[in-house]
Amino acid sequence: MSPFSQVGLLLINTIGSMALFIIILRFLLQLVRADFYNPISQFLVKATNPVLIPLRRIIPGFGGLDVASLVLAYVVQALLFAAIFMFAGYGLPWANILLWAPVGLFALLLNIYFWGLVITVIASWIAPGSYNPALILINQILEPVVRPIRKMMPDMGGLDLSPILVFLAIKIVEIMLLGPLVQMLQIPRGLIIGL
Protein backbone atom coordinates (compact mmCIF):
# COMPACT_ATOMS: atom_id res chain seq x y z
CA MET A 1 0.00 0.00 0.00
CA SER A 2 1.38 3.40 -0.96
CA PRO A 3 2.08 6.12 1.60
CA PHE A 4 -0.70 8.22 0.04
CA SER A 5 -3.19 5.40 0.62
CA GLN A 6 -1.99 4.94 4.21
CA VAL A 7 -2.39 8.66 4.95
CA GLY A 8 -5.81 8.64 3.29
CA LEU A 9 -6.90 5.64 5.38
CA LEU A 10 -5.63 7.30 8.55
CA LEU A 11 -7.52 10.52 7.82
CA ILE A 12 -10.70 8.72 6.79
CA ASN A 13 -10.65 6.48 9.86
CA THR A 14 -9.94 9.39 12.21
CA ILE A 15 -12.50 11.83 10.83
CA GLY A 16 -15.13 9.15 10.21
CA SER A 17 -14.68 7.62 13.67
CA MET A 18 -15.00 11.04 15.31
CA ALA A 19 -18.19 11.78 13.36
CA LEU A 20 -19.67 8.38 14.26
CA PHE A 21 -18.68 8.83 17.89
CA ILE A 22 -20.44 12.21 18.06
CA ILE A 23 -23.60 10.87 16.39
CA ILE A 24 -23.80 7.78 18.60
CA LEU A 25 -23.17 9.87 21.72
CA ARG A 26 -26.01 12.17 20.69
CA PHE A 27 -28.28 9.13 20.33
CA LEU A 28 -27.21 7.69 23.70
CA LEU A 29 -27.61 11.01 25.53
CA GLN A 30 -31.16 11.33 24.24
CA LEU A 31 -31.88 7.69 25.03
CA VAL A 32 -30.87 8.04 28.70
CA ARG A 33 -32.29 11.58 28.98
CA ALA A 34 -28.93 13.02 29.98
CA ASP A 35 -28.45 16.59 31.14
CA PHE A 36 -29.15 18.80 28.13
CA TYR A 37 -27.45 21.82 29.71
CA ASN A 38 -24.11 20.08 30.17
CA PRO A 39 -21.51 21.87 27.97
CA ILE A 40 -20.59 18.61 26.23
CA SER A 41 -24.26 17.90 25.49
CA GLN A 42 -24.54 21.39 24.05
CA PHE A 43 -21.53 20.73 21.79
CA LEU A 44 -23.01 17.43 20.58
CA VAL A 45 -26.36 19.07 19.84
CA LYS A 46 -24.74 21.96 17.94
CA ALA A 47 -22.48 19.60 16.00
CA THR A 48 -25.27 17.27 14.90
CA ASN A 49 -28.29 19.59 14.55
CA PRO A 50 -27.45 20.85 11.02
CA VAL A 51 -27.89 17.32 9.68
CA LEU A 52 -30.36 15.87 12.18
CA ILE A 53 -33.02 18.59 12.10
CA PRO A 54 -33.73 18.18 8.35
CA LEU A 55 -33.45 14.40 8.69
CA ARG A 56 -36.03 14.37 11.50
CA ARG A 57 -38.56 15.97 9.16
CA ILE A 58 -38.31 12.83 7.03
CA ILE A 59 -37.66 10.21 9.72
CA PRO A 60 -39.71 10.65 12.89
CA GLY A 61 -38.78 9.20 16.27
CA PHE A 62 -40.32 5.96 17.43
CA GLY A 63 -41.01 4.94 21.02
CA GLY A 64 -38.68 7.55 22.49
CA LEU A 65 -35.83 6.55 20.18
CA ASP A 66 -34.18 9.10 17.94
CA VAL A 67 -34.40 7.03 14.76
CA ALA A 68 -32.94 9.86 12.67
CA SER A 69 -29.68 9.65 14.66
CA LEU A 70 -29.48 5.91 14.06
CA VAL A 71 -30.13 6.32 10.34
CA LEU A 72 -27.49 9.05 10.16
CA ALA A 73 -24.99 6.84 12.00
CA TYR A 74 -25.78 3.96 9.63
CA VAL A 75 -25.24 6.14 6.54
CA VAL A 76 -21.99 7.60 7.91
CA GLN A 77 -20.75 4.09 8.80
CA ALA A 78 -21.57 2.78 5.31
CA LEU A 79 -19.87 5.77 3.66
CA LEU A 80 -16.86 5.30 5.94
CA PHE A 81 -16.56 1.65 4.89
CA ALA A 82 -16.89 2.66 1.22
CA ALA A 83 -14.18 5.32 1.55
CA ILE A 84 -11.88 2.86 3.33
CA PHE A 85 -12.29 0.28 0.58
CA MET A 86 -11.77 2.91 -2.11
CA PHE A 87 -8.50 4.16 -0.56
CA ALA A 88 -7.32 0.61 0.11
CA GLY A 89 -7.69 -0.12 -3.59
CA TYR A 90 -10.49 -2.66 -3.34
CA GLY A 91 -13.78 -2.61 -5.17
CA LEU A 92 -16.88 -1.29 -3.48
CA PRO A 93 -18.93 -4.30 -2.35
CA TRP A 94 -22.08 -2.26 -1.60
CA ALA A 95 -24.16 -5.27 -0.58
CA ASN A 96 -21.52 -6.25 1.97
CA ILE A 97 -21.03 -2.68 3.14
CA LEU A 98 -24.74 -2.31 3.85
CA LEU A 99 -24.59 -5.47 5.98
CA TRP A 100 -21.32 -4.52 7.69
CA ALA A 101 -22.50 -1.05 8.79
CA PRO A 102 -24.79 -2.23 11.63
CA VAL A 103 -22.07 -4.57 12.89
CA GLY A 104 -19.60 -1.67 12.93
CA LEU A 105 -22.09 0.49 14.84
CA PHE A 106 -22.69 -2.31 17.34
CA ALA A 107 -18.92 -2.68 17.84
CA LEU A 108 -18.63 1.08 18.37
CA LEU A 109 -21.45 0.99 20.93
CA LEU A 110 -19.70 -1.80 22.86
CA ASN A 111 -16.44 0.18 22.74
CA ILE A 112 -18.16 3.29 24.09
CA TYR A 113 -19.52 1.35 27.05
CA PHE A 114 -16.22 -0.48 27.64
CA TRP A 115 -14.07 2.67 27.62
CA GLY A 116 -16.71 4.63 29.53
CA LEU A 117 -16.46 2.04 32.30
CA VAL A 118 -12.67 2.23 32.25
CA ILE A 119 -12.82 6.03 32.58
CA THR A 120 -15.31 5.93 35.45
CA VAL A 121 -13.35 3.29 37.35
CA ILE A 122 -10.10 5.26 37.04
CA ALA A 123 -11.88 8.52 37.89
CA SER A 124 -13.39 6.92 41.00
CA TRP A 125 -9.85 6.21 42.23
CA ILE A 126 -8.27 9.52 41.21
CA ALA A 127 -11.10 12.02 41.73
CA PRO A 128 -14.03 10.46 43.57
CA GLY A 129 -17.15 12.62 43.55
CA SER A 130 -15.83 14.83 40.75
CA TYR A 131 -18.25 17.17 39.02
CA ASN A 132 -16.45 17.15 35.69
CA PRO A 133 -19.03 17.55 32.86
CA ALA A 134 -17.54 14.63 30.89
CA LEU A 135 -17.66 12.30 33.90
CA ILE A 136 -21.24 13.31 34.64
CA LEU A 137 -22.31 12.46 31.09
CA ILE A 138 -20.40 9.16 31.09
CA ASN A 139 -22.09 8.19 34.34
CA GLN A 140 -25.50 9.15 32.93
CA ILE A 141 -24.89 6.94 29.88
CA LEU A 142 -23.61 3.99 31.93
CA GLU A 143 -26.11 4.15 34.80
CA PRO A 144 -29.00 2.34 33.02
CA VAL A 145 -26.65 -0.57 32.32
CA VAL A 146 -24.83 -0.66 35.68
CA ARG A 147 -27.81 0.05 37.98
CA PRO A 148 -29.61 -3.32 37.57
CA ILE A 149 -26.37 -5.20 38.24
CA ARG A 150 -25.56 -2.99 41.22
CA LYS A 151 -29.00 -3.75 42.72
CA MET A 152 -28.39 -7.51 42.47
CA MET A 153 -24.92 -7.31 44.07
CA PRO A 154 -24.65 -7.78 47.84
CA ASP A 155 -23.36 -4.86 49.92
CA MET A 156 -19.56 -4.96 49.76
CA GLY A 157 -18.88 -2.19 52.24
CA GLY A 158 -18.60 0.65 49.74
CA LEU A 159 -16.80 -1.42 47.09
CA ASP A 160 -18.72 -1.45 43.81
CA LEU A 161 -17.94 -4.55 41.75
CA SER A 162 -20.73 -4.00 39.21
CA PRO A 163 -18.36 -2.54 36.57
CA ILE A 164 -16.44 -5.83 36.57
CA LEU A 165 -19.62 -7.72 35.73
CA VAL A 166 -20.44 -5.22 32.98
CA PHE A 167 -16.90 -5.66 31.59
CA LEU A 168 -17.46 -9.41 31.55
CA ALA A 169 -20.86 -9.02 29.88
CA ILE A 170 -19.36 -6.80 27.16
CA LYS A 171 -16.58 -9.30 26.49
CA ILE A 172 -19.05 -12.21 26.41
CA VAL A 173 -21.21 -10.32 23.87
CA GLU A 174 -18.10 -9.62 21.78
CA ILE A 175 -17.09 -13.29 21.84
CA MET A 176 -20.53 -14.85 21.41
CA LEU A 177 -22.20 -12.36 19.06
CA LEU A 178 -19.79 -9.90 17.48
CA GLY A 179 -17.03 -12.41 16.65
CA PRO A 180 -19.34 -14.83 14.82
CA LEU A 181 -21.03 -11.94 12.97
CA VAL A 182 -17.66 -10.65 11.77
CA GLN A 183 -16.72 -14.15 10.57
CA MET A 184 -20.11 -14.88 9.00
CA LEU A 185 -20.21 -11.58 7.09
CA GLN A 186 -16.46 -11.83 6.28
CA ILE A 187 -15.67 -8.33 7.51
CA PRO A 188 -11.98 -7.55 6.94
CA ARG A 189 -10.55 -6.76 10.37
CA GLY A 190 -7.36 -5.14 9.12
CA LEU A 191 -9.11 -2.28 7.38
CA ILE A 192 -11.84 -1.52 9.87
CA ILE A 193 -10.83 0.16 13.13
CA GLY A 194 -12.77 -1.07 16.14
CA LEU A 195 -13.39 -4.60 14.84
From TrEMBL:
<feature type="transmembrane region" description="Helical">
    <location>
        <begin position="97"/>
        <end position="127"/>
    </location>
</feature>
<feature type="transmembrane region" description="Helical">
    <location>
        <begin position="71"/>
        <end position="90"/>
    </location>
</feature>
<dbReference type="InterPro" id="IPR003425">
    <property type="entry name" value="CCB3/YggT"/>
</dbReference>
<dbReference type="GO" id="GO:0016020">
    <property type="term" value="C:membrane"/>
</dbReference>
<feature type="transmembrane region" description="Helical">
    <location>
        <begin position="161"/>
        <end position="182"/>
    </location>
</feature>
<keyword id="KW-0472">Membrane</keyword>
<dbReference type="Pfam" id="PF02325">
    <property type="entry name" value="CCB3_YggT"/>
</dbReference>
<feature type="transmembrane region" description="Helical">
    <location>
        <begin position="7"/>
        <end position="29"/>
    </location>
</feature>
<keyword id="KW-0812">Transmembrane</keyword>
<keyword id="KW-1133">Transmembrane helix</keyword>
<protein>
    <submittedName>
        <fullName>YggT family protein</fullName>
    </submittedName>
</protein>
<comment type="similarity">
    <text>Belongs to the YggT family.</text>
</comment>
